[in-house]
Design brief:
mainly alpha; two-stranded antiparallel sheet; 7 helices
Length: about 210
Amino acid sequence: MTLSQYFICFIIYSFLGWVYESLFYSFQFKKPVNTGFLHGCICPIYGLVCVMNIAFLGKVKSEAAIFVASMITVSVTEYVVSYLLEHLFGKRWWDYSDWPLNLNGRISLISSLGFGAMSLIQLRLLHPAIMKVVLHIPAGTMKLITILFIVWVFFDLCLTVRDMDKTDDRLWFIDEESETIRQANEKLEEKKKRLSLRYGNVKERIRDAFGR
């Protein structure tokens, strides 16, 4: 693959990632949600991870190896990107603090398992179909598309940095999701306590019955 083809794939997967996340949160909160870091309809971290999968795991035959390796690479990438975004802009675009088995709220085992499965789907199903389209794009058209997308992403990034003070309004869904998960965890803990009390009462009754 050429650099232009890699870049086109980056844009395609960034767009698909944006569609996936925006639909997920839109259905969850029953209203339109734009989850992208940029103003445009792309989530660059999805494009970055998918291009890494293509470059490093595209020729791996074992599904198990792809699953485990992609889990590791996605987790590392997600942690680093989360840290950089927070360090540069003082904000988080995702937060797993209320998820079980998370590391500093930046990654979690559950999300990593999901990304491992998604990487398998990408490499085995999506990418072959996408490459059939990409390979038919003439070289000159490919370069023009690449230049246009680079210019678009650059200006979008400039707008995002300029409007950084408004991102709290754009990231409302992160706080609402964290609150929903927190409430669900509290209900789960309450159920565990009730079950523990019931189990303790049963043990006491059995012990008393045999003691008699």
